[in-house]
Amino acid sequence: MRRSLGIMAGSTLLFILLAWAIQASTPYIVKWDDRTVEWFSTAQEGEALQSALFLTHFGDYWICARIGAVLLLILLFLKKYRMLIWILVGLWGMREVNHALKAFFDRERPPVDAFTNASLASFPSGHVMYATFTYGVVLLVVLYLTHSTFLKGLAAVLTVSIIGAVLWTRVYLGVHYPTDVAAGLFAGLVWLQLIWLMATFKRTSREQGCQ
């Protein structure tokens, strides 16, 4: 529980700092964003571009929702009803929270020719937030349910790889600034830890009471 609260607090602070820097048009942040997007816009070619166009779909809301649905069916089979309900709330809420944040900050997309369609505002990245929550919650469920060190390690590597790939593609394809994807990561971590705390609250409380 303390670890989850620590991740939530740290991610919230970093998100707030990023949001403040963007709203204040902090020179070194703006310069870093612009130069990174400009550099990537000159490197969009060949197999790297095709890989990015494929990998970015792992952050699509409906892809994440389908993966979440499979996870919910597994939890239903295992009779983990509390966890099922809260993860369902998380899968629905991640989109609503992201859209609310986008509407509030209303940041324009990078002024480059993007290689994929993108709607709504730029900050924070929806794809990265969806991927962080979805694959992150799959990882937490695996860590919660299995005692296999191999499965835990494999799940962790896959989770980090997929989220990292989605993060990279959103900047590479020209639809986000680096600060957008960083903010999407932090927002996703906050939402993930909040939902996980609620999903496992009874277990955590009972364990602490026995100590």
Outline:
By secondary structure, this protein is an all-alpha fold. 78% of the residues lie in helices and 0% in strands. It has a single domain (2-210), classed as Vanadium-containing Chloroperoxidase, domain 1 (Up-down Bundle), CATH 1.20.144.
Tell me what the structure shows.
There is one protein chain. This protein is an all-alpha fold and 211 residues long. It has a single domain (2-210), classed as Vanadium-containing Chloroperoxidase, domain 1 (Up-down Bundle). Helix content is 78%, strand content 0%. The chain contains nine helices and no strands. The chain has helices at residues 2-23, 27-41, 46-55, 61-77, 81-105, 126-145, 149-172, 178-199, 201-210. Helix 7 (149-172) packs antiparallel against helix 8 (178-199). The protein is globular and about 50 Å long. 37% of the residues are buried. The model is unreliable at 203-211 (pLDDT under 50).
